[in-house]
Amino acid sequence: MKRLAQTFALLFAAVPVAASLAAPTVATATPFTVGTLHAGMGEAVSGYLEVPAAAGDSGTRIPVSIVRGAKPGPVLVLIAGVHGYEYPGVTALQELRQTVTPASLAGTLVLVHIANPPSFYGRTIYTSPVDGKNLNRVFPGKAAGTLSERMAYALTREVIEKANFLIDLHAGDGNEALRPYVYMPVVGKPELDAASRGLALAFGLDHIVYDDAPLLPPEASLYTDQTALSRGIPAITTETGQLGLNGREWVDLAVNGIHNVLRHLQMTAGTEKPNTGVVWLTGYEVVPSPAQGIFRAAVRDGYAIAANGVLGVLVNPFGETLTEIRSPFAGVVNYVVGTPPVNAGDPVAMVSRLKAD
To answer: Which of 174, 170, 180, 178 is nearest to 125 (CA)?
Structure first.
């Protein structure tokens, strides 16, 4: 881990300012801005990133904080609430805003407290109640699109593109019984992959999923982390809760992970805690329901499952079996749907293979 920290120091010195692994993108005397928010050195501010009204909707306001350290350093962006029913990251960022002071910080923290207010206040899983779109599938957004697309556009231009590092904080949505894990992107660019790996290990969860899907283009990045990665910014996605719960144990996973990342990036004092005993996973697959019905899970989050093992049974409203849903391969159940109703194509489980090396 110490070697990774030394590598980052070299990267910050060697990579051009336009690249994500470079020194912070604002001069020390220049205010750091997000929308109409401005923070000078040693200042912390909170307010809203405005997404104006358009035809068919009244717009929204995304709550954001900037904590700008008294000393120079990288820009770490933390985004919570992309899916509005996933609460531990939201609570973690509220606590971080109240406890991390500019005097204790080197660099800049940008906290997006609730990236998707319509979904958060509407208590909807996956999609927005305004336009029916999944915010984590419409990046980098459109300036004149639907509300979700305009939120993605504002987040991309005003937040993500100003980052040196990014963490997208998720949890098991209101229907997902999930064992905490990290998605660690592997895009085939050594410096970028090393930096993302450093974030994944520092966050401290004991299950890490290699996400080796092809790097998407900047203009069609779809996902929050891919939007960063396609712009050369190291990024991970974390999952630290389940079933829309906001218990202390889930919030603490996010809070403790963020603090260790801050130490890892040398943004706060202290020694990074090593992450030992990681279960490395790869080749994940989200298993869809073949039809509308009522799902009865036969496994739990974190269970091992054999190839063709039964993940659950789909029944009709009268309790009659429609079909068994089985695992496509032997592996570990990252999450399984823990609430009964499903539609055709809805996810019922995610399964990953154990990584061989």
So the answer is: 174
